[in-house]
Amino acid sequence: MTRVVIIGAGIVGANLADELTLRGWTDVTVLDQGPLPLTGGSTSHAPGLVFQTNPSKAMTEFAGYTVRKLLDLGCFHQVGGMEVASTAARWADLKRKHGWATSWGVEAHLIDPDECVRRWPMLDQDQIFGALYVPTDGLAVASRAVSELITRATSRGAQFVGSTRVTGIEQAHGHVTGVETADGVIPADIVVSCAGFWGREIGEMVGMTVPLLPLAHQYAKTGQLAELAGADPATPALPILRHQDQDLYFRQHGDRLGIGSYAHRPMPVDKFAEPGEVTASAMPSMLPFTEDDFAPSWEESKLLLPALGQTKAEEGFNGIFSFTPDGGSLVGESSDVRGFWIAEAIWVTHSAGIAKAVAESIVDGRAETDLHELDVHRFEDVQLAPEYVRETAQQNFVEIYDVLHPLQPRLSPRDLRVSPFHARQRELGAVFLEAGGWERPHWFESNAHLLKDLPHDFLPPARDAWASQFHSPIVAAEAWHTRNRVALYDMTPLKRVEVSGPGSLEFLQGLTTNQLAKSVGSVTYTLMLDDAGGVRSDITVARLEPELFQVGINGNIDVAYLRSRAPEGVRVADTTGGTCCVGVWGPLARDLVQPLSAEDLSHTGLKYFRGRRARIAGVPVTILRLSYVGELGWEIYTSADNGQRLWDALWRAGQPLGVIAAGRGAFNSLRLEKGYRLWGTDMTTEHDPYEAGVGFAVRPAKGDFVGRDAIDGRSEDTAARRLRCLTVNDGRTVVLGKEPVFVDGVAAGYVTSAAYGYTIGRPIAYGWLPGSVEIGATVEIEYFGRRVPATVAAEPLVDPGMERIRR
Ligand code: FAD
């Protein structure tokens, strides 16, 4: 039987032991440095508010599971959750949030100030516009849940050992073999660190960087309130309450209120107290209350809840828990030390759901809910630097309740990674947004003058204030130019690896769905599936030499996956940073590039989905005939040192043709017009290729590959749900993604990617819908509380016959 050691008996570790033993893995030992069951970690003092609604579908599902599980355990007070708005911006945002709840299947209501006060009589009605009310939210009794889970897991065979500190992890041949404690080594095949904010130290034991930062967060309790006189602490009745405009939340403790505040300065904690005796008011995760930091929050609390004027904040503490660069949890197996897993930076809210997903990943090799947003490998190297983690995690603390636009970039740190074209892009007035540390142009101010000549039918309608943010009408001109002339797109940040060495072909064949055993020069769009047939990535494989493949992938998670699977002799090298790529696309692309090269770049000379090494203006390049925007052209790669010269040569040669530089705004619009999916947004491991509309990339006849058996017998016809292309009927409401879609008045799906389609003169939204919804059907998208009719359209919307690309 596989021997599992879990480090940490907080809410995460205890849930994981429960989930593993539930699945029949009973050789589970849980170690904690603190006494049991109150270990002194963050869980031991957690006030336990569970607000389920989250922009992330996965996190909402994890919260929903936690609620159901803790209810079953008798450790949840389902008092409901209320998030009030005291500003118009927040009220609008709560409407958007109502959309997320509906998209992810959580019952939610927008309630007016009268109803707010009916549910929370102490609220000052004049302070609020209304609230988002979720009846199934409530209070987790986290420490009791830990006790219950310990009892249940122990009854199935698990062992919990308190006051035992893990001091090292033993490994041999790249695999964990045991866990070291003062009492000796405990042998293990799998070790899972559920050490909460101590996670970095455990990661260091195997050389793994865990990008989290422990921060203190203030929690206080008021004195007795006459309004709550006689209330039983064991049965809270008031809904949990969030006042996000002031970074505050509230819960009832009998006849008192608890107040949590994120309004104070970020307080990173670098040194932790030794675990020792733990009491309700003294534990390593608690620091002394700093009253000055709380003072402004107290004043704001009294404004919202005037009854607090009769009392004061009687007691409080600064409690420690984990923050990460993007605010997400950290889950996954080390790619260097097999069998070493982490499950950290997890709130009580998501604890049971994530523990279930981790148990599924360990036992079955995959989780029912896609985990890429939590995957510890999602960070780029530059994002693992301690300075980066420290700065961005503190930003996340500060912004935790802010209204954030989905495109809103961080302001700092910036300029971490720039492509070799960056200097030229700046000269052209590029407006950069950041992703994965890369500066990516979204449009170029130098193209503004093109707007005046834009044909009338290409002119987009005015956007509302929300959809106008991080957007410019210049994007329309860039899209027009790509469809009618030629544009340069910086594709450098798209991740790529070289897979090389004897056995490379067999290795890639075994992981992918499409036929890669083709001649040198072939380029193939293919999928990587998981064992259950879910799409774990879509990749483009260029065979440059018999045993050398350039593979365009979706991010670091793919690098970790490929590396962890690569057999002896096969090398997976991340070449992204040392190379660059410019997409030259548009009907005049050949007029631009051909004169610069001795190679035959005619339609037959370098066919669609073929590539070769070449020289362009003397620069050694790899040129792939591909187009993510649906126009004639190539992706041209070269080493970073040659990048600027390549750009300059293309730019100069393009002047007579009116070449422009174009950004991601145009790119996103054009790709949606062409129906090209974006992995992670449009499809994940939760979808099979046929549902996602990429079944054309599956060739079961090629031989065995991961996921082949699972999808055997499936087809477009068996798909119970489909990723569909919608166009918005009013021609002007540009939705942004994650909005719910209603079929016959019932919420039945949600939007994934969206953009305005300049060529077709309508907004486009891709979305998941039941398979029974046919092309031509009218559906409705909820956008800030409004239902906007949309039509299910045949795809692609532009150039279904591929005449624009194949010429
Ligand atoms: P912990 O409970 O900290 O457990 C980790 C365990 O690992 C500890 O018991 C520790 O002793 C053990 N450990 C560490 N190192 C070692 C070692 N070397 N050897 C052996 N054992 C080790 N979340 C919500 O969802 N809702 C809320 O309302 C909420 N409010 C909060 C309020 C405050 C003031 C704070 C500080 C946090 C709050 N949180 C809330 C967050 C939540 O409490 C934590 O995210 C959660 O409890 C973390 O659980 P865990 O099991 O990962 O960590």
UniProtKB/TrEMBL annotation:
Cited InterPro entries: FAD-dep_OxRdtase, FAD/NAD-bd_sf, FAO_M, GcvT/YgfZ/DmdA, GcvT/YgfZ_C, GcvT_C, GCVT_N, TrmE/GcvT-like
Top-level taxon of the source organism: Bacteria
Residues in Aminomethyltransferase C-terminal domain copies: 721-799
Domain FAD dependent oxidoreductase central, first and last residues per copy: 364-419
Pfam name, any one: FAO_M
Domain GCVT N-terminal: 421-701
Record family assignment: Belongs to the GcvT family.
Protein name: FAD-dependent oxidoreductase
Organism expressing this protein natively: Amycolatopsis silviterrae
